[in-house]
Amino acid sequence: MFDRIEVRVGNDIGASMSGSSILVGRSLTTVSPVAKPCLTVAVTLPIEKLMNRALQYLCVATLLAACADGSGGGGTSAVGSNASSSPGTPGLPSTISCTANYKYSAPLGQLHNNVWNSTAAGSFAWRQCLVQRQVGSSTQYGWTWVWPDPGVTVYAYPEIGVGKSAYWGGPQGDSRFPVQISAVDRMIVSYDVETVATGSRNLAAEMWITSTKITQPDPSAIATEFMIWSETVPAKRTPSGSKRADVTIDDVAWEVWVAEDFGAGIADHRWTYVAYRAKTSTPTITYDVRKLLGDAINRGYVNGGHYISDFQFGNEIMAGSGTTWIKRFSVTIN
């Protein structure tokens, strides 16, 4: 294993961290292996392209460090807690797993290395991993990715969630789910993330809403896929379907997007897709999901007698590379 990662643009601008070694220089090509078979990167760029690609290689350098320190597959029980209030400089990332669709139980919820549409990347050597790092006395969790840029579709949705997904399944431990929408007075969601990335993505929450109360994955019971986009990069990206309305709830302005007869991935069953997209993008937000659901019920897009199977949020990756760290995540239902 090498002693450090170094990313240098031209002769003057640079950043380094311990881990593995990668150098981006004036039309210079380097190949950096790691101690455990994980990732090999070759970089050849003329100087005029270096500035607008420097961020991408910082992300790749972070992935290299994670791969060098981690197992590249599998994981053990999580140790740590929410690091949002812990002072200190973040430590180097380590890999939890780079296995496709790997699930890992962390204190904040279940991490899912969701690569549901990876086949759309064709022969591209994509990579996506769940990662962790120390921040003060706590452990912070996240994910890192490398997908085609430019991209042609949504490739993946690395995420963290609570409850048992009607689509993917999940842990049995959260007794709050499934819950009937009409039985919920408030559902306060709060999260804060740190993302360094290139390309195109969103930061979006998702709930699978089922017509009956189920305790095992059953895509045929899904009536509505309900998404909440708090961040969109670039801003021109929009949810599926068509825009149906604008609404302001608790001082946050949203667009309402709907697609009927919708479905994606492994399920043959069709459902209604509803997305509330924040007009002002932010990676840090607190909102009452019940108020958004109430608005959708009033518009006829959601049935109040149906059930919320789970709540999850993550990045829908449409192009590029990057890393997201979860600094805060909580779901309160009453």
Topology diagram in text:
Layout (H helix, E strand, L loop, with lengths): L4 E5 L3 E5 L12 E3 L8 E3 L3 H23 L24 E4 L5 E4 L2 E4 L14 E9 L2 E10 L11 E5 L15 E2 L6 E11 L2 E11 L11 E12 L8 E8 L2 E11 L8 E8 L5 E5 H10 L8 E2 L1 E5 L2 E17 L1
Parallel strand pairs: 14-17
Antiparallel strand pairs: 1-2, 3-4, 5-8, 6-7, 7-10, 8-9, 9-21, 10-20, 11-19, 12-18, 12-21, 13-14, 13-19, 13-20, 13-21, 15-16, 16-17
CATH architecture of the largest domain: Sandwich
Averaged pLDDT: 80
CATH fold annotation of the largest domain: Jelly Rolls
> Distance N terminus to C terminus?
50 Å
Give the strand content: 35-45%
Helix content: under 10%
The SS-based structural class is mainly beta
Count of DSSP H/I helices: 2
Kindly provide the radius of gyration, computed on alpha-carbon positions and rounded to a whole number of angstroms: 20 Å
Query: Main sheet?
Result: 17 strands, mixed
What is the total tally of β strands? 21
What is the H level of CATH, i.e. the homologous superfamily of the largest domain? Glycoside hydrolase family 11/12, catalytic domain
